[in-house]
Input
Amino acid sequence: MAAHMVCAIDYFGCTMPVTSTFLAGSIGTSPVMVRTIMGMLKQAGIISSSKGKSGITLARPLSEISLLDLWHAVDQSDADSLFHFHENPCPQCPVGGNIHAALDGHLEDAQRALEGQLAAVSLESVAEDVRRRAEARGALGK
Output
């Protein structure tokens, strides 16, 4: 939803004020959900909002926002890792005593790969793809 919001703010922001109600209709969710995510994006310095005619705007260029930035902005877990599993396996069990050591390195590698991929994708490239696809479908707007 955060990527959808950022792309919609970019796509429509030059032609009309973008509001939480408008974004909710585009996303297919409630304005309350949109405002919750907006608060996270605002706190992360990705969007700005003000009451009045300007609506919601981007706080920085799309080229300076990555998918990783969005993920960090909306991730509500306190964990440092994507992968979580039971913390108290039986140490006397041959599996329980060794499962963390057997998996941890692989899971850390997977997380680094995912984070690297997300960091490599700018919202500028996502927005360009959205715009290209919208134009191919004959969509109205910017």
